[in-house]
Amino acid sequence: MIVAGRVSVNGRTVCQLGTQVDGDLDVVRCDDREVRPRRKLHVALNKPGGYVCSRQVERGQARIGDLLPRDWSFLYSVGRLDRDTEGLLLLTNDGDFCLRLTHPRYGVRKKYLATVEGRVTEDVLRRLEAGVMESGELLRAQRARLRSANATRSMVELELVEGKHREVRRLFESQGFPVLSLTRTQIGPIKLGELPLGKYRVLAASEVRALTMAANATPERARADADAVVNAMRTGSDEGGRR
């Protein structure tokens, strides 16, 4: 379309491929119809087990996109959860937002609740926090806390920063504790809360700001700033809609 001379920017026909425009300032037209940037959308989903985050799936597999409106097919997941893992998953079409929440250098923490086979001890928790080598990778929980334990199973809350492939499961399996169930409960300041399994909600603008703050600041400052934004949001009217 560009080479054919069907595209104009600010009234001038543009035939050069790779021409850059400012979506907020420049007027772009194709066949004399204005082309507007798609609005940025940020969505929280309570992913059920059995759904995959990839768009390329085998026949018969369920995709997370099946849980969303059809006209939201442009959304992609911010990081991934394994097929058998449930819980909080963010989706967006905002590339910068996605990068800041997934790249380890920004240090956005994620919380997981794992139920594992066997009794987990304080020594095991300390090893998870110290880090273990598995398949040539250093896996480490920023924080590991025992929620409950008996002779047959334990429930442990973990905080991670990097989110390497199957990291939680690999951490526990390296210590001899198979994971029975796994749920992500929080990303930065955003909690899963009471969002029903398989349902979604649009994040409020204040929640997006809180996540951005968490990605831009030191861990200590990020927690304080993000908590302040979320607390302010609770008393305001800037709420996302649940589906």
Describe this protein's structure.
- This protein has 243 residues and is an alpha+beta fold.
- The chain has 3 domains: 1-37, no CATH class; 42-105 and 190-234, Pseudouridine synthase I, catalytic domain, N-terminal subdomain (Alpha-Beta Plaits), CATH 3.30.70; 109-187, Pseudouridine synthase, CATH 3.30.2350.
- It contains 5 helices and 17 strands.
- Strands 5, 8, 9, 10, 13, 14, 15, 16 and 17 form a 9-stranded mixed β-sheet that branches. A 4-stranded antiparallel β-sheet has the order 2-1-3-4, with no helix packed on it.
- Helix 4 (205-216) packs antiparallel against helix 5 (219-234).
- The relative contact order is 0.14.
- Mean pLDDT is 88; it is low at 218-226 and 237-243.
The largest pleated sheet is described as: 9 strands, mixed
Share of helical residues:
10-25%
The CATH class of the largest domain is Alpha Beta
Number of domains: 3
Q: Please state the second-level CATH architecture of the largest domain.
A: 2-Layer Sandwich
- What are the low-pLDDT stretches, counting only 5+ consecutive residues below 50? 218-226, 237-243
| Cα radius of gyration in angstroms | 21 Å
The share of residues in extended strands comes to 25-35%
From the spread of the alpha carbons, the general shape counts as elongated
Mean pLDDT: 88
Total beta strands: 17
Number of helices: 5
> Structural class from helices and strands?
alpha+beta
Q: Kindly, what is the distance between the CA atoms of the first and last residues, rounded to a whole number of angstroms?
A: 38 Å
H-E order: EEEEEEEEEHEHEEEEHEEEHH
CATH superfamily of the largest domain: Pseudouridine synthase I, catalytic domain, N-terminal subdomain
CATH topology heading of the largest domain: Alpha-Beta Plaits
